[in-house]
Design goal:
Radius of gyration: 30 Å
Shape: elongated
Structural class: alpha+beta
Distance between the termini: 29 Å
């Protein structure tokens, strides 16, 4: 894919200047580029978490909300709507409007220069005002990252002894970039204290989080099952609808509809549709334990020996939602199903006891739509 021109333009300009420069100057410029690139390579992991500290979705964790869906909603809505945040550097406290993720980086082209007087006076359109605060936050990302690299390259003097930190307390600062822009800790929202730091108590503008919708999601999955007794294999397709049961969605309920096909000869092949109403306990944020009683209706064999059978049974399993580890909304599930036939068209009702059809070990993979 072609890279975004707005992102590659500074690099293209640097390369053009490098190629046009006399050889000694080009070698010097190339040396500076290599040094900067190596700094990014060695410091890149730390910069990732530093920039997360300026992202709206990471600034305001709602500790009272334990539910996975609510946390995700808070993260996305704060990134999209923005919030007032406080950045603490050695020179003091700075207030800025924070967005995050694609809402911060997705709009490649911003109007420039920003009319800050118009923004303060409320004369700008919402889009123009958003452009201004996004441009400012992008500048903060660059300046804090640069300050972090400079601090790292100078031995990390900001986190050394009082004597090492002294340059930021003198008028003749020897590290002005670090003193002005290096975050001393993750950004905060108004009302949260900067622990261990002194700052002037005052009122700040702020915002409150949006109320999240009830947690629910839908999934579509394909599955493959094998009979632990070695009597056959089965494939199927499931559609499920999950909803919260309780304030924090620790418990969920679901409706599931499935169709399945069992291999076999002309007399034993099966086509089945089933329905279940399940209960699910969230063992961890993305790990769910399942208990699903189900009923089913099926056809066994082919004409003229085709018969109808009806039954019920339990399913237990464990489901993982690894969306935080991969970039697609996967649903992975491992389960055990035991269908008991209550009526068979060839034999009638199970008057002599339930007939165990199979002991199915089932693996499912699908997509979860939250």
């Amino acid at each position: 894919p072609v890279a975004d021109v707005d992102l590659t333009a500074p690099v293209a300009m640097e390369l053009a200047q490098l190629l046009a420069a006399p050889r000694p100057q080009a070698r010097e410029r190339l040396g500076r580029i290599i040094s900067a690139a190596m700094s990014l390579v060695l410091e890149g992991s730390g910069l990732h978490f530093l920039q997360d500290g300026l992202s709206a979705g990471h600034i305001r964790p709602i500790y009272s909300r334990r539910a996975l869906g609510e946390k995700k909603f808070d993260h996305d809505s704060d990134n999209r709507e923005g919030l007032v945040a406080l950045l603490q550097t050695p020179q003091g406290e700075h207030e800025f409007v924070a967005h995050g993720d694609s809402y911060l980086l997705g709009r490649a082209h911003l109007a420039a220069p920003c009319d800050w007087e118009g923004a303060r006076a409320g004369r700008l359109s919402p889009d123009a005002a958003s452009d201004c605060v996004i441009a400012h936050q992008r500048g903060l990302l660059v300046s804090t990252a640069a300050a972090s690299i400079l601090d790292w390259a100078s031995g990390g003097f900001m986190y050394g002894s009082d004597e090492q930190r002294a340059p930021c307390s003198r008028q003749d600062e020897s590290h002005p970039m670090v003193c002005a822009h290096l975050p001393l800790q993750a950004s905060r929202i108004p009302g949260q204290e900067f622990h261990g730091l002194t700052h002037e108590p005052r009122l700040h503008r702020g915002s409150i989080p949006l109320p999240p919708p009830p947690f629910a999601y839908e999934s579509m999955s394909v599955n493959a099952s094998t009979d632990l007794a070695g009597m056959g294999n089965q494939i199927g397709l499931d559609i499920a609808f999950y909803s919260e049961l309780g304030e924090f969605a620790t418990w969920l309920t679901s409706y599931r509809i499935g169709i399945r096909s069992t291999d076999g000869d002309r007399r034993s092949e099966e086509f089945i549709t089933d329905f279940s109403y399940g209960f699910h306990w969230r063992w961890a944020a993305r790990l769910i334990l399942d208990l699903e009683p189900f009923v089913y209706l099926g056809l066994r064999g082919s004409s003229p020996d085709r018969s109808v059978f009806i039954g019920a049974g339990p399913r237990i399993g464990i489901t993982a939602l690894p969306e935080g580890l991969v970039k697609i909304p996967l649903e992975l599930s491992l389960g055990y199903r035991v269908p008991f036939t209550l009526y068979d068209g060839r034999y009638g009702l199970a008057s002599r006891g339930l007939k165990t059809e199979a002991h199915w070990l089932q693996f499912s993979i699908g997509l979860a739509f939250m």
